[in-house]
Amino acid sequence: MAKKKIMKRSWAEPFKIKVVEPIKMTTREHREKALKVAGYNTFLLKSEDVYIDLLTDSGTNAMSDYQWAGMMLGDEAYAGSKNFYYLWDNVKKYYGMPYFVPTHQGRAAEHIISKILITPGDYVPGNMYFTTTKLHQELAGATFVDVIIDEAHDTENEHPFKGNIDLQKLKDLVKKVGAKKIAYISMAGPVNMAGGQPFSMKNLKAVGKYAKENKIPLWFDATRAVENAYFIKEREKGYGKASIQKILHEMCSYFDGLWVSAKKDLMVNIGGILATKSKKVFQAARNMVVVYEGLHTYGGLAGRDMEAMARGMEEMVDFDTIRARIGQVEYAGKRLEEFGIPFVKPVGGHAIFLDAKKFLSHLKQDLFPAQTLAAEIYADSGVRSMERGIVSAGRNKKTGEHNYPKLELVRLTFPRRVYTQAHIDVTVESIASVYENRKSFKGLRMTYEPKYLRFFQGRFERI
Ligand code: PLI
């Protein structure tokens, strides 16, 4: 009998499991009831009714024993906690920014920086939008303009850096409104809403050069910057041998400042960072943080939270850790491909994004195909995912009409160090089963719509 030969050696997670948390397996009947109570919105489900929770990778990570041990060293002084100074040192070390204020999470940093940099009537160009980022820019009086490359809107295009900024689109905007009207360029990497797609260092350098020449500040949503650094290492010429830490450092060097939701890369449950090279912005942020968050040495966080963040930063740049994280997402992608399921290619850093327009091609966008798909996957297996389509895109500020985004996606997001390969297999089989039954779904009707970020609390019923 012919024996199998090893073609390629596998990777495995660089950790073993010390503590486990039981999860509940439920019946279809139970899930149907829970879904109805939740208004067919996966955000409104109780987590105890969820079997495998792929709603988000935000704050849902498993901390290491090193981080948990650090929690015991929390210095809960109101002012000048030692954990704050340790965290500040690590912000300098890993992100290369000299000035820093902590915030309770990412959107708090977005709020503060939007208020500081934006004058009402300004424009903020960005590589696609993120929900909270864009909202804070708009609340501060700016108009957001998407300047991402066109390839990012095509779910089948295998461009390795779909998070790149289209320099011509940026130049056209500057020409139209004038450089003085651009509050700052908002560059995220990887781009969450595009499917976790990275930008290249080459593109960043070009954008940085243009921004400098035109005296436009360049700011970085560095929430998942380590994933972007990994993709640069894997895909961009000249970076194959560089460490993740070195690539991250170089990326940050082109920016004037950055914000981070520490709930992602840093593998903690809560926390945010606002860091900059500008003393002037720092002073304004430090002053504003005491109004909205807490003293500038804790920013809405406990000392122990800051300790876990500082330690998480040291772990996030470990190559084996980030390879296993993205490797798990790639594994899910390979398995979904076996069933011919449409999703955004190439596979992104933190999530698989199912293409709901293709998956439920018989549903018009105002029947909320992605919302429908997320609800039906939950009904099938208890796997929780998230809509990233017309509901997330909200309404046009002027006309009040729905925004109709090109991408109508369902995101399956992988918390770091939480689920095993077997959980991924169960998830893939559930999606394959929903795919087989796809023609039976008729879409949803919205029955309640909140004013802001409607995807969090909106309610629906089946048609
Ligand atoms: O959830 P926050 O407030 O800590 O962070 C806001 C935020 C900012 N930028 C980016 C790229 C994000 O992905 C982000 C939050 N993301 C969430 C909650 C997510 O589920 O993707």
Structure overview:
This protein is an alpha/beta fold and 463 residues long. It has two domains: 28-57 and 319-462, Alpha-Beta Complex (Aspartate Aminotransferase, domain 1), CATH 3.90.1150.10; 74-316, Aspartate Aminotransferase, domain 2 (3-Layer(aba) Sandwich), CATH 3.40.640. 40% of the residues lie in helices and 12% in strands. The strands form five sheets. Strands 2-8-7-6-5 form a five-stranded mixed β-sheet, sandwiched between helices. Strands 9-12-11 form a three-stranded antiparallel β-sheet. Strands 1-10 form a two-stranded parallel ribbon. Helix 5 (131-139) links the parallel strand 3 (123-126) and strand 4 (143-146). It is globular, with a radius of gyration of 22 Å. The N and C termini lie far apart (56 Å). The chain binds ligand PLI. The site of ligand PLI has 15 residues, from helix 4 and helix 5.
Notable features of this structure?
463 residues, alpha/beta, Aspartate Aminotransferase, domain 1, Aspartate Aminotransferase, domain 2, 17 helices, 14 strands, 12% strand, globular, binds ligand PLI
Give a short synopsis of this structure.
The chain has 463 residues and is α/β, with parallel strands linked by helices. Helix content is 40%, strand content 12%.
Q: Main sheet: which strands, in order across?
A: 2-8-7-6-5
Question: So, the CATH homologous superfamily of the largest domain?
Answer: Type I PLP-dependent aspartate aminotransferase-like (Major domain)
For the record, the count of structural domains works out to: 2
Number of DSSP strand runs? 14
Bound compounds, please? ligand PLI
